[in-house]
Amino acid sequence: MPDHPIPKLLAIDDEAQSLELIKDALSNAGVEVLTACDPKIGLETFKRVRPQIVLLDLMMPGIRGLELLEWILAADPGAEVILMTGKYSTESAVEAIQKGACDYLDKPLSVEKLRRRISQLLSEAQDRRKTQELEHELLDACQFAGIVGRSPLMLDVFAKLRRVAPHFRTVLVTGPTGTGKELVARALHRLSPVRSGPFAVCNCSAIVETLVESELFGHVRGAFTGATQDKIGVFEYGNRGTVFLDEIGEFSLTAQSKLLRVLQSQEIQRIGSPIPRAVDVRVIAATNRNLRSMVRDGKFREDLYYRLAMVEIPLPRLTDRREDLPLLERHFLERFAAEYKKPVAGITRRAQTRMAIYSWPGNIRELENVIGNACMMVDGKVIDIRDLPAPVRGQSEDGAGQDEIMMSLQELQKRHVLRVLEHVGGNKSQAAEMLGISRATVYQLLADAKAGNGN
Q1: Where are the beta strands (DSSP E) in 292-358?
Q2: 231/221 Cα distance (integer angstroms)
Q3: Domain ranges for the chain
Q4: Measured between alpha carbons, how far is 268 from 299 in angstroms, rounded to an integer?
Q5: Do the bridges between strand 382-383 and strand 80-85 make them parallel or antiparallel, or are there none, so unpaired?
Q6: What SS3 state is found at 277?
């Protein structure tokens, strides 16, 4: 087990005698005790040190304890705050708990009760650390070929991948947008006998109809206006490997017939060349559309459908595998915390609860965007509800807000970095400090944004 630093406790009280009592009572409690007589100094100390536990007097000059409680929890929602008062009332106790305090102690403080409560909080913190370590181990155990899951639906997917990968010639992967169809395609390739060969990706929805043949099969120089040199197509590039045809349902009937011919003959012909070229490829097609319905409506060739769907692997929506949500949250949290070099260690229970009841229309991709954006924007060690987009928080907002949640993570990152840069007058060092990332990361994000805009 790794060594952990001694937990810190901050006591904020305008009575010096009370602070001395707390220091003496907790001298052997396994915590480093810090004190502040002034609430403003206490808040600055909290922001600088980030103690795990705070003992906070309810009545102090200048700032009420409940106000300070809100500011502390806004800075770090994971902090455990205990309020102390010599004027106990049920109303103030309830208000304190509602605002996020974990307990409410009467003055004069009972040394025995204080020690017992701090010991309990330290024990709970240790349990959380152990839980995080176990979650990390579980995450490692619940990954299959780069795919995270332990729900019965995903275990069925994993079993099918194991059986299919060594033998397939064509596979159809179906499922709503954002369910991980390309991830499954790459897993099939890595588990297949041609894993050392190329993995060629073709986004069928992005190809202009007039360029379908050129993209799939290539062309020779002079074959048409603009063909200034020979070009190999996706199938030739993927020879002795795998071709992944994403969004196959977007192909026109003409393009479908040309694809069917290649699947049947395992030969391609570059545009402008009379020479057929043999190719040995495994083909994985993916779609979020119902191809059976398209066949009935005459929008998809029946013979091509049955050729592709010799093996079909349907992927479940995230709402159908909610038991995987904590694992996926931990997976993305660890990934983005490492990527941004930020000490984000977890997600508050209330934020996890909010995500558990959200409908996730964008599935895994949306969850990835939400966690990635939260990791970049959070100012602390834990992600809280306020770090989540409005739709996930349960707040209603206009269509533009919903568009933002479905936006790519890179675009969200770019927008946030640009907003911070504008706020600091273009000072990249200051922006990096505010974002909690390195200057190199800021420069890289700006470079990516510039490349994405084509500038």
Answers
A1: 312-314, 346-347
A2: 8
A3: 8-134, 148-314, 321-453
A4: 24
A5: unpaired
A6: strand
Between helix 428-435 and helix 409-423 the angle, nearest 10°, is 120
Q: Are 120 and 82 in contact (CB under 8 A)?
A: no
- Type of residue found at 428: K
Instruction: Tell me if 8-134 shares its fold with 321-453.
Output: no
Q: Are strands 312-314 and 170-174 parallel, antiparallel or unpaired?
A: parallel
* Class of the domain covering 8-134: alpha beta
Q: Which residue type, as a one-letter code, is found at position 125?
A: A
Reference 437, options 335, 342, 332; nearest CA is 342
CATH number at 148-314: 3.40.50.300
Which secondary-structure segment (H or E) carries 173?
A: strand 170-174
Q: What is the pLDDT of residues 218-252, one digit of tens each?
A: 888 877 777 778 888 999 999 999 999 999 999 99
Claim: this prediction has a pTM higher than 0.85: no
The dihedral over CA atoms of 84, 87, 89, 95, expressed in degrees to the nearest 10, equals -40
> What's the confidence (pLDDT) of residue 455?
43
**Closest C-alpha among 267, 360, 223 to residue 258:** 267
